[in-house]
Amino acid sequence: MEKLRAGYYTDTYFNHSRATLLADGRHPDVVVQVFQKRESYLGGVDEVIALLKLCSHDWSGLAVRALHDGDPITPYESVLTIEGDYTLFAHLETVYLGTLARRTLITTNVVRVLEAANGKPIIFMPARHDHYRVQTGDGYAAYVGGRIVGVSVGVTTDDQASWWGGVGVGTVPHALIAAYGGDTVTT
Questions:
Q1: What is the C-alpha separation between 140 and 149, in angstroms, rounded?
Q2: Do residues 42 and 104 make contact, with C-beta atoms less than 8 angstroms apart?
Q3: Residue 127 has what pLDDT?
Q4: How many Cα atoms sit within 13 Å of 138 on the Cβ side?
Q5: Between helices 135-149 and 93-117, what is the axis angle to 10°?
Q6: Within the chain, which residues score under 70 in pLDDT?
Q7: Residue 84 CB neighbours (<10 A)
Q8: Rg, the chain, Cα only
Q9: What is the 3-state secondary structure (H, E, C) of the chain?
Q10: What is the torsion angle, in degrees rounded to the nearest 10, for the CA atoms of residue 9, residue 71, residue 160 and residue 150?
């Protein structure tokens, strides 16, 4: 959390903007509205609110309003509004925008796959294609997509299922089949 609070994961120009404002003794009250350009299903809001609570320089000085994870959103609809002294949260802009973008993309994609699957359950298997540090939130975004459609989504790692108390599921790895010489019906 300290690195988040210090702006370590933030585009440097936001950190420079904050430092400049503080050096000049300026504390402008702003209204930041976050939106997306496509019809989607929102993901990442709970995570972003937690980041703002834990990593802003004074959560009590901010007024935050947001839609909910899983809400359908239209182009240019405000999904998150932050009001307050910009120096309290400027260092988090990259983090909250990136979180909302990624989780919304995953939630929306899972909804579309589930709709195409027409009620059949799916297994969300991204862990082998991405960095392990994104598993937890991505798994939750897939879970939200499943809630929207009303179909349970399996995830492949325990980490992906950890935010709702689930466990990873899976199929049979190709390596195991090869270890048995391709015999999938051992007698």
A1: 15
A2: yes
A3: 84
A4: 21
A5: 40
A6: 187
A7: 21
A8: 20
A9: CHHHHCCCCCCHHHHHHHHHHHHCCCCCEEEEEECCCCCEECCCHHHHHHHHHHHCCCHHHCEEEECCCCCEECCCCCCEEEEEEHHHCHHHHHHHHHHHHHHHHHHHHHHHHHHHHCCCCEEECCHHHCCHHHHHHHHHHHHHHHHHHCCCEEECCHHHHHHHCCCCCCCCCHHHHHHCCCCCCCC
A10: -170
| pLDDT score, position 177 | 86
Residue type, 176: L
CB 48 within 8 A of CB 12: no
- Which pLDDT belongs to residue 81? 98
- The first and second tokens of residue 5, run together, are 């609070």
- Give the pLDDT score at 187: 57
b/e map 146-160, b = 16+ CB within 10 Å = bbbbebebbbbbebb
Residues 171, 142 contacting (CB under 8 angstroms): no
Cα separation, 55 vs 51, whole angstroms: 6
**Residue 154 to residue 151: CA distance in whole angstroms:** 10
Q: What is the value of pTM for the model shown?
A: 0.89
For position 130, what pLDDT does the model report?
A: 85
Q: What is the pLDDT of residue 115?
A: 96
